[in-house]
Design brief:
alpha+beta, six-stranded mixed β-sheet, two-stranded parallel ribbon, elongated
Length: 229
């Protein structure tokens, strides 16, 4: 009989790779979308672990069972660095929401296998976006597993509360406050604009104070106390 200690040592020796030596994305558009979704969700969700291209191992002792979603969201799990997402070390919380950004290298068989993996291991919402055709599709867990969402136009994620706007040339993801997801460059540009507006307002306030001081000084030279006005 194998002792519990032997089993524990055996489990501890299992190697769980944190890379498959494959690139994160096969083209710039796929990479851009992965970054936009991961960063915006990470900003939006303070009480969730949001990762891009990170290996997820759902079963302890089974390093052969894994997937690295383009973006995954584990609600209720703390943020922080991880070499991979080992579910048994995360209070057995499976990522609830998955995003996949399709590229020409993705095969139908590959995507069918991913859907089966997410179906089997407890994902509640699964979204796919094709950066070439700009088609967006999704699956929502129901009574019998992940079911295809019939209409994505205007769809709101039950868990994330973000809205899918498919009316433009490309997908727009809308935050609960009505503002769109922004790229890092757009965030920097917006921050610079706010900075310029604040500096302009400060300069205008300083100019107004200088004009008021000059007027008060002139009134005093005429023997008028500005406080009496």
């Amino acid at each position: 009989m194998v002792s519990q200690l032997s089993k524990s040592n055996e489990a501890a020796e299992i190697f769980y790779p944190d890379s498959d030596d494959q690139p994160m994305a096969s083209n710039t558009e796929q990479y851009r979308w992965i970054v936009i979704i991961q960063q915006n969700l990470n900003w939006l969700l303070p009480d969730a672990f949001v990762a891009g291209d990170l290996f997820w191992y759902p079963i302890e002792g089974r390093a052969d069972i894994s997937v690295a979603p383009d973006v995954m969201v584990a609600l209720g799990r703390p943020k922080g660095k991880r070499p991979s997402y080992k579910q048994w070390q995360e209070e057995n919380v499976a990522p609830q929401v998955i995003f996949e950004i399709l590229s020409p290298s993705n095969t139908k068989r590959e995507m069918e296998q991913k859907l089966l993996f997410f179906e089997r291991h407890g994902v509640k919402e699964y979204y796919l976006y094709d950066t070439e055709s700009h088609l967006c599709s999704g699956f929502l867990r129901g009574e019998f597993g992940l079911a295809h969402i019939s209409e994505m136009a205007g769809w709101e994620s039950p868990l994330l509360k973000i809205r899918f706007d498919t009316t433009g040339d490309e997908l727009q993801l809308i935050r609960p406050d009505g503002t769109p997801f922004l790229s890092y460059e757009e965030v920097i540009a917006q921050a610079e604009l706010f900075k310029q507006e604040a500096e302009s307002a400060k300069q205008e306030a300083e100019s107004a104070k200088q004009r008021a001081d000059k007027l008060a000084e002139k009134l005093r030279s005429l023997g008028v106390n500005p406080d009496d006005l």
